[in-house]
Amino acid sequence: MKSVGINGYGTIGKRVADAVSAQDDMEVVGVTKTKPDFEAELALKKGFDLYVSIPERVKLFEEAGLEISGTIDELYDKLDIIVDCTPEGIGAKNKEMYEKKGLKGIFQGGEKHDAIGLSFNSFSNYGDVYGADYARVVSCNTTGLCRTLKPIDDLCGIKKVRAVMVRRGADPAQVKKGPINSIVPNPPTVPSHHGPDVKTVLYDMDITTMALLVPTTLMHQHNLMVELESEVEVDEIIDTLNNTSRVMLMEASKGLGSTAEVMEFARDLGRSRNDLFEIAVWKESINIADGELYYMQAVHQESDAVPESVDAIRAMLEMEEDPQKSIQKTNKAMNIF
Ligand code: NAP
After folding, report:
1. What is the helix (H) or strand (E) element at residue 136, kind and residue range?
2. Shared domain check, 292 and 154
3. Structure confidence at residue 166 (pLDDT)
4. CATH of the domain at 193
5. Are residues 162 and 278 in the same domain?
6. Are residues 150 and 239 in the same domain?
7. Which of 5, 49, 254, 336 has its CA 20 to 30 A from that of 85?
8. Catalytic residue chosen out of the listed positions 85, 140, 146, 156
9. pLDDT (mean) for 178-190
10. What's the CA gap between 171 and 86, in Å, rounded?
11. Active site includes 140?
12. Which of ligand 1's atoms lies nearest the C-alpha of 37?
């Protein structure tokens, strides 16, 4: 049983904590917070040991009547690996501490690839991260692109990808982010950083992306145009995506024609927090014209990359050499299709 610490128990951290707890070969030894707020209270109620990530704030937790197990310094020694789920930029700074402690660390997509040195996606480069000390799980958008592009590349080869990403303005709980009434090219420069990010795990993919922010919190939405190496039929793409783990085909004709309806489907699945770990591809959007494949997909930004953190733990701690076995084990424990 491997011991895992979660540094940062926010949108991603609390999901990774639950995902790790669902596995039978690893356990959460502690989670950290900087503030004694409702998430800290709930972490304790769920049975997680709570550590304070900024030691000077211990008093705040005591005043709030929250039972802490210590500061983050006392957590490090109990761990085989730490999953850093702090806000972007903080993880890279924390890496220096993990290095000093000789502790392996997994980072999230808000960190820059160069700051960590290695990026990870379960389907794309599991073997390259096997035994590594530090790796970054690529962002929610990049995970979404890799999940569908990799099986298509394996099927018929990809010459070139162009993608337009319609990004959610904020997560549902973020009250201070927008836009609330605008469409914002973001980043305003073309290409966006998403294409280069894909290449940190699918090294040879020729991909160019551009992105917009829109006033929605539910999901990101991607529009892909993919020049193919060899001729295939639409049905072969449909079969391939249908048989790809962590990808789901959605049909607008069955009432799933929008991100709102896709998330209603996710709520009906009855999973914790209404998470949709799978990338939802609209079946009707899949089309091929003049050797170019078109499709549209939706990404639940809060949860899609969470199972990848579990696989990254298995790869980095050399618990499972075969990516498919880790993916299947993670999926089974998390009830992922
Ligand atoms: P979040 O909801 O803001 O949670 C961040 C967590 O880190 C909170 O528990 C916070 O604790 C803690 N924290 C804040 N400052 C800290 C510090 N100085 N030291 C230690 N812990 C600190 O952020 P998130 O959305 O989960 O994002 C985490 C990472 O995942 C980022 O790299 C982000 O880019 C990436 N990511 C996010 C999404 C998404 O849609 N949200 C998707 C994919 C990847 P307190 O609340 O107690 O301050």
Report:
1. strand 134-137
2. yes
3. 98
4. 3.30.360.10
5. yes
6. yes
7. 336
8. 140
9. 96
10. 15
11. yes
12. 47
Contact between 17 and 48 under an 8 Å Cβ cutoff? The reply is yes
Confidence of residue 296 (pLDDT cuts 50, 70, 90): very high
Q: How confident is the model at residue 28 (pLDDT cuts 50, 70, 90)?
A: very high
Whether residues 157 and 284 fall in one domain: yes
Ligand 1 pocket mutation, candidates 85, 97, 194, criterion most atoms within 8 A of CB: 85
The answer to whether residues 291 and 144 belong to one domain is yes
**Measured in angstroms, how far is the CA atom of residue 10 from the centroid of ligand 1?**
5
Q: Tell me, yes or no, whether 19 and 131 share the same domain.
A: yes
Are 257 and 313 in a shared domain?
A: no
Integer Cα distance of 174 and 140 in angstroms: 17
Mean pLDDT of 31-44: 98
CATH of the domain at 67: 3.40.50.720
How many angstroms is it from 278 CA to the middle of ligand 1? 22
The distance of Cα 301 from the centroid of its chain, to the nearest Å, equals 7
Give residue 11's pLDDT: 98
In the predicted model, what is the mean pLDDT of residues 203-210? 98
Taking CA atoms only, the protein residue closest to ligand 1 atom 30 is 108
> How many A from CA of 85 to the centre of ligand 1?
5
What's the domain count of the chain? 2
Q: What is the pLDDT of residue 190?
A: 96
pTM attached to this predicted model: 0.97
Q: Are 207 and 199 in contact (CB under 8 A)?
A: yes
Pocket test for ligand 1, best of 56, 108, 171 (most atoms within 8 A of CB): 108
Q: Which domain holds residue 43?
A: 2-138+306-334
pLDDT range class, residue 280, cuts 50, 70, 90? very high
- Residues 294, 196 share a domain: yes
Residues with CB under 6 A from ligand 1: 7-13, 32-35, 53, 85-88, 90, 108-111, 139-140, 171, 301-302, 305
Give the span between the Cα atoms of 319 and 11, in whole angstroms.
27
Closest-lying ligand 1 atom to the alpha carbon of residue 12: 26
Of 81, 201, 86, give the one whose Cα is nearest residue 134: 81
